[in-house]
Every structure is written in C-alpha cells, then in structure tokens.
Write a structure and sequence with these properties.
The chain is built from seven helices and 27 strands. The chain is an alpha+beta fold. Strand 16 and strand 17 form a beta hairpin. The chain is elongated and about 120 Å long.
Amino acid sequence: MWWVVPAIMAGEYIYHRWIEDHPPGPRPPTVVLPRIEEGSPIPLIYGTWRVRTPIMVWSGNAFSPGDSYRRYDALPPELDLFNDGVETCNHFSIDMLLIVGIPFYKAGSSGEQSRIQRIWLGDALAVRYVHPSFPLPDDKSFQLITAPEASFGGLSPVDDLFICGRYTAGNAVQVIPDYTATANIGGSVTAFFDLMVYSGFPGGNSSSAAFVQAREDLNTTPDFRNQIAVFLHVGMGSNPNVPAISFEVVSNEIQSDSNLGTPALASGDANPAAVILDLLTAPWSRCGIPIAKVDFVSFVVAGVTLFNEGHGFSTALESAIDAGTVIDGILRQIDGVLYVEPTTGKITLKLIRSDYNAALLDEVNPDNASPAGAGWYSVQGWAEMPNQVRVTFTDRAKDYAQGVVIAQNVGNAAAQGAPARSLSIQYPGCCTPDLANRLAAREHAVATTPLVKASVIGNRSFYLKRPGDPIAFSWPELGVNRMAMRIARIDFGQLHKGEIAMDLIRDVFDQQLGAYPQ
C-alpha cells in the first residue's frame, strides 16, 4: 500500500490548487464617482456664489486604461473596413451631467439667466485654456486643465487632470445653440454636449444616445428647464477618483422677471430687493405669489436705493428652508420691513433710512395716545450696551471663506470701565469686506445708542401710519420731547373701538441725545 500516501498528497494538492475557494485576485481599478445623497435639494442661486456640491443626475462612458472605444468622428462599424476608429484608453475618464442650481426665474425665456465664472477641481482653481486653432463660439463651452502651460499637443492625459464641457443657463426654454464642437485633447475626441457616443463598443454606454437624439429632435436639454445644467467630460489621468468639482455661478436679476430696472452691481451680487421679489413671486420652487399681489413700485424704489448704496446680496440656498426665514435674513441685512398694505392688500417693501425731517414728523403724546400697560416704556442703561460689534460675512475674494470685521467704541469701553463687550452678527449674504465694514458701522451705531421702547394705544389719527414709518414721541411726564422713533408694529384693531396699537423703538438716526433723561 505504498501508493496511499502519494495518492493522499496528490489529492490534497489537487483540492487546494483547483477546488478549494481562493480569495479573488486584485480587481482592476474603476472610476470612483463623488457620493450624492438621494433627495438632495437643488441649490437656489442668487448673485455670485460657489456651489460646492452640484447634483449628478447622469453618468456614463466610464473608461479605464485598456478599455476600447470608437472615436466620435469614426465611420460606422459596417463602413469602417480597417477598424481604425477603435482606440484603446490610456487614462481614466467619465462623462457626467450635473445640475448646479436654479437661477432667477424668467418665464418663457431663452436668455442668459446665469453664467459660470470659475471652476474648482478639488481645492485647485482650474485654468481655462483655449487653443488658438479651436476658438469657442461663446462662453458656454469650456476646457479646463490643471497645467496652464500645457498645450493640446503636449497635454498628457495619463498625468494631467482635465475637463471639458458645456452648460445651459437655467432659463425656461434651455435651447442649445445649433452647432457641434469637438476638440482633440490628449488624443481622444470630445464633443461638447453631443455626449461622446460610444454605443455598441466595449465599455460604451448606450444611454448617451438618448441625450443626443433629444438634441437632434428638440434642440433642447431634456427635462431640465429653469436649472443650470452642466455636461462634463472628465479625464483623471492615472487616478480613478473623480475630483470634487465646484462652480462659481453668477445669477442676477437683469434678465429675469424680477428685474427692477437698475444695472447689475459691480460686485456681482444681486439686488436684495430683486431677491425678495423672486422668492415671493417665482412659480417654480418658490412662493409663487401672483405679481398683482405685490406693490412692484415699492420694490423698484427700494432697489434703486440699494443699487445707489452698492448694497448686494449673494447666496445659494442648498437645504430645505422656509422662504420667510430667508426673507427675514435679507431684511435684517438691508434694514428693511415687509408688510401688507391694508388699503390695497399688496405686499410692500420699505427701507429704514434717514429720509425724513424730524421737525415735520407727526407726534405721539398724551393727547392722542395712552400707555399700553405696565412696563410700556423702557430705556436701556449705558452699562448694558456692547462697545464692540463683530460682523461675520462670506469673503468671496478668499474663495468664500468666512471673514470677520470689527467696529469698536473705545471711549464707551473706557467709560464703562470694563473689557470689550462684544455683539456678534452674521450676514452670510454679504460677500465683500467693503459692505461688511459698512454693515458693522451701522450695527455699531445701533448697538451703542441707548435703546428706548414704548408701547402705546393711539386714536384713529394714526390710520395712515405703517411699519417702519418715523414718528415723534413726546411725553412730558417722562421728560421726553419729540424723540424720533420708528413704528416696529402696528395693529389697526377694530374700527368701532377707535384704537390703534403701536410698538415704537427709538430711531437710530435720532440726533436728540437730550430727548430723554440721562
């Protein structure tokens, strides 16, 4: 039985060599896409803003080194006798369709609702590069690479990251200009928005044909009305990971239904009055209030004032949020109020500005008003006031990093005999240091002036007063003489009672420092 041991050894060898399960060998790397959470809201973009997380709605034609594909300009397979249209990839690449955001709304328009101004690949600001032999017909097409000195002839797709593509501006029609543009980048042919048809070949994705057919039949981007859509061809070289791609988008009101007649702000920001109007009236993804329900003239007047002040607003609303919350934030930044005009039922915008003659203001006094109740009048003490204001804003010049400006009252701090008492305020829609400094100065003037409040019940003589209106306040018993105040809230009550309730607050523009006892 000498053969038993060799037989057992041979059986073990056969089992372990060919029958026993073995761990799989290393798989060739494939393209790795950025993760997109399901249900992510589409950003609503106002002014100039960097969108860091565009939403990927389609990807295809993912190629790895060694994959075969047919060039876009090659003959059909049945006519290509020598098969010279088939090539082999030497780098990782993929096509993607991204939704960047929603701009200002314009009904039925094919105009320029937005434009893409800068693109980042990861943390690196990509460089736009146009070869002299391939001029672009408009600014909706782009090629971006990470090596600005490279040329099309010298660009190595194995080593360099590059993207090329095309976008639509987010209008209600989304017409694609009728042309076919191609460029030779690193030896492979890329078609802008004709989506590099690789159908029928190894690694190809036939879904791209649907986009091409839609373009040929309709000359439009399918199903992406009112959205900024970007098609990209991304070449990652020897790295299979698609970089994080972010876009700086400019969306202003000039071509929109919320156009107030003022030019675009030099800062690239949107007019805050136009932003509020768009949020209220745009029918798609916003409140959809009929424009007839809005006092358009009041928005135009406010828009002109804000334009003359150089006061802009920019943001991308990238999460589900109540429109009222957003509008309240804008009103705080521009120092304005929004109310429904009782005589017309229309939504009205009013800015709080030093635009009145204090000597001509109507007066609240004991002859036409009475205290609203206990604690109806209060004065803030000097020791309670902050002497420093910190305003946090979004600094566009530093790639949208957070910035801080400070306004101080050194004399007030010395008089209080205490260290700096700081008040922090956030204005994320402010994107320039100049505007941030002006806002800090304004808030500092408010914070370092003693706050006076009064709640009164007036007679019907105040029926024309509205929120934000200035009014004089005189009360001999308190030693107050014509203090300039603002109506913070007004309740017209019931006509048969003849009473109008008003909450008053001292106006920051009041210069009568002796208007109340110190």
